[in-house]
């Protein structure tokens, strides 16, 4: 949305809050009527959970489902918990199986059985099959409702299948082609099918299929689908049999969520998984407090280092003036390296096997940065204080930048190797580590150069 549109939604949200407070629901309904679905979604995200549920109840049945499907999974969970059983049972039954899995991941475990019981046997079976895959697997994000064709079928027969299953299928623009054992042998585009003669066989113009296994990491599969520009990525089981498809919109949804999580964790908070303005204060506190406690404990290392070199500081108090500069520069250098490598991991540009190459590059990058900053620090500190102090600052910046870039570069790779989110190992922990080690390097260089 443009800034002007966002400002408009903000003004509408303020107006709606006042109307709800006054109990004027008729006016709220009149306000909602001209708003397009994206604006209603943005509006709900700016209101409290209780007010968002009120807004949702005032929508027409057809429009409410469209709005609900456009909401992030976290906000869907909030809305479901605020509605009555009768309302959510009907809503849940109208959703696609993969969307149900997204929603159930956001709800308390006690709610899921009640919702599943309200489904038909067929819908319950499809949803249960998706929920059987690991939480981070692409099988949990695929759609099992897919139209397939066979190499020996004609275009006319394929189009009949499309028409018969048009309403239930997640996508029709890319059709998987399977053999008699349901193994994927290719794909055909609906555009090519429509352009061909009715009696032409599918085998004549099907193309090679890119596939993903159902237990593959969801982010990896989604990244591959978007990089290849696929409208649908067939998903197969361990025996290469088709079990579903990942559509391009679901792939984009996965990547958006993963990138939001990475950005949050690199900043030292847990992802909210819902709009900031609709998140209760207690959840905001909960998302931050654990990280602050971890960092507070880690910061005691820095205090202990300062305590160990207290005598050195007492002899040369000017050294204390440069502590913020040195630990800040080291932390920023490490964070830059970690952010770069974490993004490269997400894009598939590097893997844990590339640790030596990454380490080699980051050592050179860190050394180059440290040399430039060290020369600058040497000149400034030497002119303002003393040339011996300048040597200490210059050498420390050189060493700290080299160390920080090296650690920042390999920590995300180490995290991926042990199957931990690389973002968790990034900025907060790197900053704490570099602060402590940087101070040790600083004081050891100072003692050696100044003879104290």
From TrEMBL:
<dbReference type="Pfam" id="PF00571">
    <property type="entry name" value="CBS"/>
</dbReference>
<comment type="function">
    <text>Acts as a magnesium transporter.</text>
</comment>
<dbReference type="GO" id="GO:0005886">
    <property type="term" value="C:plasma membrane"/>
</dbReference>
<keyword id="KW-0129">CBS domain</keyword>
<dbReference type="InterPro" id="IPR046342">
    <property type="entry name" value="CBS_dom_sf"/>
</dbReference>
<dbReference type="GO" id="GO:0046872">
    <property type="term" value="F:metal ion binding"/>
</dbReference>
<feature type="domain" description="CBS">
    <location>
        <begin position="142"/>
        <end position="203"/>
    </location>
</feature>
<comment type="subunit">
    <text>Homodimer.</text>
</comment>
<dbReference type="InterPro" id="IPR038076">
    <property type="entry name" value="MgtE_N_sf"/>
</dbReference>
<feature type="transmembrane region" description="Helical">
    <location>
        <begin position="289"/>
        <end position="307"/>
    </location>
</feature>
<feature type="transmembrane region" description="Helical">
    <location>
        <begin position="365"/>
        <end position="385"/>
    </location>
</feature>
<feature type="transmembrane region" description="Helical">
    <location>
        <begin position="313"/>
        <end position="333"/>
    </location>
</feature>
<keyword id="KW-1133">Transmembrane helix</keyword>
<dbReference type="InterPro" id="IPR006667">
    <property type="entry name" value="SLC41_membr_dom"/>
</dbReference>
<keyword id="KW-0479">Metal-binding</keyword>
<keyword id="KW-0813">Transport</keyword>
<dbReference type="InterPro" id="IPR006668">
    <property type="entry name" value="Mg_transptr_MgtE_intracell_dom"/>
</dbReference>
<keyword id="KW-0812">Transmembrane</keyword>
<feature type="transmembrane region" description="Helical">
    <location>
        <begin position="425"/>
        <end position="445"/>
    </location>
</feature>
<feature type="transmembrane region" description="Helical">
    <location>
        <begin position="391"/>
        <end position="413"/>
    </location>
</feature>
<dbReference type="InterPro" id="IPR036739">
    <property type="entry name" value="SLC41_membr_dom_sf"/>
</dbReference>
<dbReference type="InterPro" id="IPR006669">
    <property type="entry name" value="MgtE_transporter"/>
</dbReference>
<dbReference type="InterPro" id="IPR000644">
    <property type="entry name" value="CBS_dom"/>
</dbReference>
<keyword id="KW-0472">Membrane</keyword>
<feature type="domain" description="CBS">
    <location>
        <begin position="205"/>
        <end position="261"/>
    </location>
</feature>
<dbReference type="GO" id="GO:0015095">
    <property type="term" value="F:magnesium ion transmembrane transporter activity"/>
</dbReference>
<dbReference type="Pfam" id="PF03448">
    <property type="entry name" value="MgtE_N"/>
</dbReference>
<keyword id="KW-0460">Magnesium</keyword>
<dbReference type="Pfam" id="PF01769">
    <property type="entry name" value="MgtE"/>
</dbReference>
<protein>
    <recommendedName>
        <fullName>Magnesium transporter MgtE</fullName>
    </recommendedName>
</protein>
<comment type="similarity">
    <text>Belongs to the SLC41A transporter family.</text>
</comment>
<keyword id="KW-1003">Cell membrane</keyword>
């Amino acid at each position: 949305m443009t800034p002007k549109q966002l400002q408009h939604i903000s003004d509408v949200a303020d107006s709606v809050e006042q109307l709800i407070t006054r109990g004027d629901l008729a006016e709220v309904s009149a306000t909602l009527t001209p708003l397009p679905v994206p604006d209603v979604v943005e509006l709900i995200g700016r209101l409290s959970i209780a007010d968002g549920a009120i807004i949702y109840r005032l929508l027409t049945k057809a429009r409410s489902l469209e709005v609900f499907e456009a909401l992030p999974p976290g906000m869907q969970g909030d809305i479901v918990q605020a509605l009555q059983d009768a309302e959510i049972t009907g809503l849940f039954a109208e959703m696609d199986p993969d969307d149900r899995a997204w929603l159930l991941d956001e709800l308390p475990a006690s709610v899921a059985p009640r919702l599943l019981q309200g489904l038909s046997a067929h819908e319950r079976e499809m949803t249960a099959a998706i929920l059987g895959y690991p939480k981070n697997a692409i099988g949990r994000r695929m759609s099992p409702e897919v139209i397939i064709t066979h190499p020996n079928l004609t275009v006319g027969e394929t189009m009949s299948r499309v028409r018969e299953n048009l309403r239930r299928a997640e996508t029709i623009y890319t059709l998987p082609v399977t053999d008699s054992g349901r193994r994927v042998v290719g794909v055909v585009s609906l555009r090519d099918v429509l352009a061909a003669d009715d009696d032409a066989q599918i085998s004549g113009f099907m193309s090679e299929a890119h596939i993903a296994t159902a237990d593959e990491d969801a982010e990896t599969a989604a990244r591959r689908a978007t990089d290849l520009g696929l409208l649908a990525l067939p998903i197969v089981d361990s025996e290469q049999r088709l079990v579903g498809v990942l559509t391009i919109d679901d792939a984009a949804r996965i990547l958006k969520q993963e990138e939001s999580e990475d950005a949050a964790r690199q900043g030292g908070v847990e992802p909210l998984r819902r709009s900031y303005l609709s998140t209760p204060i207690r959840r905001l506190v909960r998302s931050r407090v654990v990280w602050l406690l971890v960092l507070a404990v880690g910061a005691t290392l820095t205090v202990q280092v300062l305590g160990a070199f207290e005598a050195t500081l007492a002899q040369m108090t000017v050294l204390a003036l440069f502590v913020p500069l040195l630990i800040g520069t080291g932390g920023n250098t490490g964070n830059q390296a970690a952010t770069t490598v974490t993004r490269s991991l997400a894009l598939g540009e590097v893997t844990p096997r590339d640790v030596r190459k990454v380490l080699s590059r980051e050592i050179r990058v860190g050394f180059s940065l440290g040399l430039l900053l060290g020369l600058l620090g040497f000149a400034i500190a030497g002119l303002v204080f003393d040339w011996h102090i300048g040597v200490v600052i210059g050498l420390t910046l050189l060493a700290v930048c080299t160390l920080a870039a090296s650690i920042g570069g390999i920590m995300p790779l180490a995290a991926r190797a042990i199957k931990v989110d690389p973002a968790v190992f990034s900025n907060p922990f790197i900053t704490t580590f570099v602060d402590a080690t940087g101070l040790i390097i600083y004081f050891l260089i100072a003692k050696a150069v100044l003879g104290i």
